[in-house]
Amino acid sequence: MENNLLLTYLIFTPLIGSLIILLVKNEKVSLIKNLGLVFSLIAFIISLVIFFSFDSNNSDFQFIHKLKWIEGINVFYFVGIDGISLLLILLTTFITPLTLISSWSSIEHKVKEFTFFMLILETGMLGVFASLDLFLFYIFWEAMLIPMYFIIGIWGGKERIYAAIKFFLYTMLGSLLMLVAIIWLAVYSVNILGGFTTDFTELLKVAPSITRDLQIWMFLAFGLSFAIKVPLFPFHTWLPDAHVQAPTAGSVILAGVLLKMGTYGLLRFNLPLFPDATIIIAPYISVLAVIGIIYGALVAMVQTDMKKLVAYSSVSHLGFVVLGIFAITTESIQGAVIQMVNHGLSTGALFLLVGVIYERTHTREIAEYGGIAKVVPFFSFALLFASLSSIGLPGLNGFIGEFLILLGSFKSGVLNSWWFTVFAASGVIFAAVYLLWMYQRVVFGELKNPKLEKLTDMNSREIFVLIPIFIFIVWIGIYPSTFLNLSEKATKKVIYQVNNPVNVTNIIGKK
């Protein structure tokens, strides 16, 4: 396939924007904000061009751009996407400009640096979802850490430094294990392919010849890095601190996109590269996923801080995604992919709404609220809508993802037990408990706090940010085929690669 530059334009548009912003004087705040928004919107437009040009009937990688990068060790700049990565790229380019608009008034100091880091972060995220060379993937994976570290550490809450360092150290630890596994896999490929390579499509040819024991070690090295990012229980402890201390924009990007990099890594690399290990380890990871679903929900119930409650809900919801991936059925993986998008929309909206009320009251304590329905009706409706989406109300997006995951898990021959589905389903009930209970305490009842009488409702900018998110929440809930059709062929290909590893060599060799 000839080189296609669209993906490269997409990845580096935010980077070019960030470098231009560095040249602008600090005093020109409105120009800096507008430039940041314009370049993120250009990236969104390019992603739409890719979306409309994408062939959903083709399971191969599309929009491939491949260049020699480090000739000495045969490393390429190699990018391309399938239906799975396309959905996550669209989510990234959709959420980023909305996040920048949402922070228009809340970020008042070092606006230039903030906008710069947000655009660098977008480049890193897009690079992760598009990379088809493991070394390139690792570079983007690590590069994304730096801007997020500064976003939490500079614009975060009182304990921002602690949260930023904890986030950085946790992710870095896992990343180093992944780097070791990448080198290990590339060195192993020398005997089979005749040369050192980190090309993902080439390494797929190596997968069938790796011994089962070696596959397990490599799977664990990759998997631990991705599990920390998800975060999968019990590697989740960095997440509540990072969410609570991060500014609203940081929380939205963290929940909306960054956590999906972990589940995407498991689906893109662990399953097809280590098929034998996947079958062996899948039930154990699924147990951790179910524990995470229930644990995250139970801990969310007892939170007194709204932001921490939403943070723990992410642990629960991402447990569903991991369960769907390792059930290894078409329904469950399709559910997992669409649930990655759903979580980005619904939890992103919840963090935006917590930010809206926090800007006015400077408190996130649930006990400080109550009876605000009459004072801020637009906010109250928006919070209810986002909560129902997160719960999985039929007709909204969350229901589609959770239903497919539970259906696929029930049918799974790999898990071979309906207990996974039974325990996971309890997470749906618990989600209704903690979110509706939080909503009832914040919005209904008597208006006991006199300060709340002077609350102002959502302004036109805040409403404008939420409307596109709510449109997609309803769209996916009513007509999910628009998005499921994109990822169906890629999903089936991954399942085939897991179940028929020996034949993968022949498939790729014929291309």
Question: Brief overview, please?
Answer:
This protein is mostly helical. The protein has helices at 6-22, 29-53, 83-102, 111-130, 134-143, 145-155, 160-193, 200-206, 212-229, 238-245, 248-273, 275-301, 306-327, 330-361, 377-391, 397-411, 419-443, 460-478, 481-499, 501-509, and strands at residues 62-70, 75-81.
Keywords:
511 residues, mainly alpha, 20 helices, 2 strands, 3% strand, globular
Overall shape: globular
Total domain modules: 1
Ends apart, CA distance between termini: 10 Å
Structural class determined from secondary elements = mainly alpha
Count of helical regions: 20
**How big is the Rg?**
22 Å
| Sheet of most strands | 2 strands, antiparallel
Elements, N to C (H/E):
HHEEHHHHHHHHHHHHHHHHHH
Spatial ordering of strands, largest sheet: 1-2
Fraction of residues in helix: over 70%
Assembly state (oligomeric): single chain
- Residue stretches low in confidence (pLDDT < 50, at least 5 long) are 503-511
* Overall strand count: 2
Percent of sequence in beta strands:
under 5%
* Arithmetic mean pLDDT: 86
